[in-house]
Amino acid sequence: MTTAAPGPLAGLRVLDLTRVLAGPTCTQMLGDLGAEVIKIERPEAGDDTRGFAPPFWPETKESAYFLGVNRNKKSVTVDIAKPEGQALILKLLESCDILAENFKVGALAKYGLGYDQLKDRFPRLIYCSITGFGQTGPYAPRPGYDALIQAMGGIMSLTGEPNGSPQKAGVPVADLFAGLYGCIGILAALNHRNATGQGQQIDIGMLDTHVAWLANQGMNYLSTGENPPRLGNQHPNISPYQEYPTKDGYLILAVGNDPTFERFCKNFGQEHLLADERFATNPKRVANRDLVTQTLTPVMKTKTTAEWVEALEALKIGCGPINTLKDVFADPHVQARNMTLEMAHGSGATVKVIANPVKLSATPPTYRSAPPMLGEHTEAVLSGILGMGATEIEELRAKGIL
Q1: In Å, how far from its chain's centre is CA 400?
Q2: How many CB atoms lie within 10 A of CB 131?
Q3: Do the beta carbons of residue 225 and residue 280 sit within 8 Å?
Q4: What domains are defined for the chain?
Q5: Please, are residues 211 and 153 in contact by the beta-carbon 8 Å criterion?
Q6: pTM above 0.85, yes or no
Q7: Residue 2 pLDDT > 60, yes or no?
């Protein structure tokens, strides 16, 4: 299904020069919130992720990867390496509020489309640049890739089994966080522009955003000067807070405080642990985490995962099964929260995508159009926004500009 009600960003127009994941995550969020997003793609090739497959979505030529972050966008093919293509971009910018890009530092300046080249001509323009390492600093010229940023940003040193190798997260979190921080920056810049009429550049470096979300582990290091060890699925500051084997699988047990641990012990035959100094408080349990794990493992094996979930939830003790993605999308709560939706694709197929998680009571996200086919809206945008005629468009196409 699709919805057409205006969102909180309705009336704003975004020129989207991003591709792959970090930038498109940012601009899809803007599109979901009501902005008109014009995605500029290379003629014939398009966004790199159109070819990040298999899998392709059935009955289409689109990769599942591309479909995940490109709904609510209009695809327009323009070769910005050619003067005629650059001229089209400048004309489009006359009616745009935001330009989002994730080219290497300085790359767009070669085409006359860098921020310093545009800011005087378009003083209200909000220009969001998302790169691997930001616009300044010794690493600024380097390309940024998710796994590279996870490695350099420290998360891989924290992830994995204690005696195993460093591990990256199973999804590209460095890209995703950069995109979301970019969106936050754009929203702040919009508020500033509403008050002053002044646009600005937003400089998002993936390594910066990665360092920012090191959160408690980053603070653990800053307070001690010691790199936190890899703990597998254990929590660095809370115990027990990890996975345990059950009679038929695994369960996450999250005991967040001492009263909860006391409740667990009294209800599951472990009351004697409360008299043991090594289990008395959370700091003591963290200091003796291996003992806690060894002690509770045989206890957790006495019930199935479902039995534990029922028993622990009744006592308001944090727990949950370790779901596969099949389990996730079949989960009644995920379904009740409408976290997937079907959209009519330009190919004639119906595609299923993951919904926006932001729940706004008055102006919720909208789903106006499925991820576009390459160049699907080129004629409509150039004629509708720039007033170009069919002959002029065809001439540009013949030259390889479109």
Answers
A1: 34
A2: 28
A3: no
A4: 13-213+357-398 (3.40.50.10540), 241-323 (3.30.1540.10)
A5: yes
A6: yes
A7: no
